[in-house]
Design brief:
The protein has helices at 79-92, 126-130; strands at 38-46, 55-62, 67-70, 106-107, 110-111, 117-120, 132-139. By secondary structure, it is of the alpha+beta class. It contains two helices and seven strands.
Length: 151
């Protein structure tokens, strides 16, 4: 369960989500449809890290209301953050999905084309167990229509 997002504080392409692989309002992954557009990005931060507020991944909310978990861009991902976000994924993935870790995006310098976003459901009660917090990052204004996803 993601917190309520306060009024827009940052432009959509700047600010604390620059290390997110996808911006608002782009489509998260195929198919290119309006309901697959990202309307909100929240940072998933570790509360067990030696660095307070360390971002370990991102929680994407799509126009259809589903939430998807993704890692940071590879150049910002540490081994500890990868282990933490994999723990979140293994405990919050949707029933019927057997994914429990993020597969590698590169293998010996070659793109693997593996999926990099997974549908999750994070309840408020799971936050303390997972030792994370979900912090609002950027959101599409509710009163503004989404652009055509094919553009």
């Amino acid at each position: 369960m993601a917190p309520v997002v306060p009024a827009m504080q940052q432009p959509l392409d700047t600010g604390p989500c620059l290390d997110s692989p996808r911006p608002v309002p782009r489509v998260l992954q195929p198919p290119v449809e309006r309901n697959m557009q990202i309307v909100r990005i929240d940072r998933v931060e570790s509360t067990a890290s030696l660095m307070p507020g360390e971002t370990i991944g991102f929680l994407y909310t799509l126009a259809d209301g589903t939430t998807w978990l993704g890692q940071r861009m590879p150049q910002y991902q540490s081994g500890a953050a990868a282990a933490s976000v994999n723990q979140v994924l293994s405990m919050t993935h949707m029933p019927g999905q057997n994914i429990s870790v993020f597969p590698p995006q590169m293998n010996h310098g070659v793109a693997t084309k593996y999926e990099q976003f997974f549908r999750v459901q994070i309840s408020a009660g799971a936050l303390s167990t997972l030792r994370i917090q979900v912090v609002p990052c950027v959101a599409w204004p509710a009163n503004r229509p989404l652009p055509d996803p094919n553009m």
